[in-house]
Specification:
InterPro entries: PNMA (IPR026523), PNMA_C (IPR048270), PNMA_N (IPR048271). It comes from Astatotilapia calliptera (Eastern happy). Residues 343-354, 375-385 have a biased composition (Basic residues). This is PNMA family member 1. The structure is a single chain. It is built from 15 helices and 5 strands. By secondary structure, it is an alpha+beta fold. It has 4 domains: 9-100, RRM (RNA recognition motif) domain (Alpha-Beta Plaits); 106-160, no CATH class; 182-242, no CATH class; 248-342, no CATH class. It has a 5-stranded antiparallel beta sheet, sandwiched between helices. Strand 4 and strand 5 (95-100) form a beta hairpin. Helix 8 (214-225) crosses helix 9 (231-242) and helix 11 packs across helix 12 (291-302). The protein starts with 8 loop residues before the first helix and ends with a helix. The relative contact order is 0.05.
Length: 396
């Protein structure tokens, strides 16, 4: 029988499926004598070093050849290029044929590796196919494929230049002016890296550019311990170092204790609730499908400054079918705008201001001037009268 008979390979696949074996660790041995011991078969096959330890998992009788066919499990993964076409029995000297699973074609392996490489670079096979020569087949011209891959990767730096830089984070507390705290920085970076159509290497570079001080030292330590770390490993290291050490359950208890601050509008209180609720869900303190109900219940419980608005919106009646965050925020802000408009209409019209004080002051000033003038005239009259009396006495 020739090596790796195609007719025997389906038997190997079906038999492995029935026994629950991995084809990559299985072989068929054909032409074994009925008198051959199983231990002898295993010892003979173990002489083929590439197979490792061998164990017979099953056998059946081949009526055409009057021999046994055995299914064997190998500890090592079977490499068809290193397995001999036949082996010779120790005792009887007979030749046994070996059948292995069909090896994956080189084109399939190449496509798989190319797909994995492009995925790491933020590209797809479709990007490469669009740049290939239309007159050539996709799998038949490796040179065309390699050229297309080079064109795709070469275009990436130009595309990445249009991306917005991340804000600065150092991990210093309190947060210095011009920098973000951890929560704000992580929120921005996670959102933008999800939207970026660039390689993981480019994402790592942009993260490193936005770090300084203790935060940058943490990433340097991560790179030394794990040179293959991706951008998510960087973010997880920063979050575990500078983030809160509270568990999801502890954060949930903190969330349940939140209340509206004095003078705080209801929409701002909702935003504070949402920020902490997101952390609770991320830490596993609450299931995603329970977030809407928890948000509404805590808003009703903690809104001590907005009882009338809760009544106006009818939020207590929506507990069985709680709205989403965006829907709830929209309702509250619309009601706040209506309330602001009502308060504006209630304010009385301003009366024109009359400078009564200034007018009175001017009047008093004029009166004072007249009084001083009359006083001077009285003094002048008295003086003239005294002079007249004096002249009359001298004449007498």
């Amino acid at each position: 029988l020739p090596l790796n008979l195609n007719v025997s390979q389906p038997n190997l696949a079906n038999w492995c499926r029935g026994e629950g074996l991995d084809q990559a660790h299985a072989i068929l041995v054909l032409g074994v004598s009925e008198e051959e011991e199983i231990s002898t078969v295993e010892e003979t096959l173990e002489q083929v070093k590439t197979l490792g330890k061998v164990r017979v998992r099953g056998k059946f009788f081949d009526a055409n050849n009057q021999t046994l066919t055995m299914l064997c499990e190998c500890r090592q993964e079977v490499d068809p290029t290193k397995v001999p076409p036949e082996v010779i029995s120790f005792r009887e000297g007979g030749k046994w044929k070996i059948v292995v699973a069909e090896q994956e074609t080189n084109s399939d392996l190449f496509t798989e590796k190319l797909d994995r490489f492009l995925h790491d670079e933020g590209k797809t096979l479709e990007d490469v196919k669009r740049l290939c020569d239309p007159s050539t087949s996709w799998n038949s011209n490796p040179e065309s494929i390699i050229r297309a891959v080079g064109d795709v990767l070469q275009s990436k730096p130009n595309e990445s230049q249009s991306y917005r830089n991340f804000r600065i984070f150092s991990g210093v507390h309190p947060t210095p002016p011009g920098e973000d705290n951890l929560d704000s920085w992580l929120e921005q970076v996670k959102f933008m890296t999800d939207e970026y159509e660039c390689s993981d290497k480019e994402k790592r570079r942009r993260i490193i550019e936005s770090l300084k001080g203790p935060a940058l030292e943490i990433i340097q330590a991560v790179r030394m311990s794990n040179p293959m770390a991706n951008h998510m490993d960087y973010l997880q290291a920063l979050e575990s170092t500078f983030g809160t050490s509270e568990s999801g359950e502890e954060l949930y208890l903190t969330f349940r204790a939140m209340h509206q601050r004095q003078g705080e509008c209801l929409s701002n209180f909702l935003l504070r609730l949402e920020r902490l609720l997101n952390k609770v869900v991320q830490k596993g303190g609450l299931q995603v499908d329970e977030a809407n109900r928890a948000r509404l219940e805590q808003l009703i419980k903690g809104a001590t400054e907005s009882d009338f608005m809760l009544l106006q919106l009818g939020l207590r009646d929506k507990r069985n079918d709680p709205p989403t965050f965006l829907s709830l925020l929209k309702e509250i802000r619309e009601e706040e705008e209506r309330e602001a408009a009502r308060q504006k209409l209630k304010k009385p019209a301003q009366r024109p201001h009359v400078h009564a004080v200034q007018v009175a002051s001017e009047t008093d000033s004029k009166g004072g001037m007249n009084e001083r003038k009359r006083g001077r005239e009285r003094k002048k009259t008295k003086g003239e009268k005294r002079r007249g009396d004096s002249k009359q006495q001298r004449a007498t």
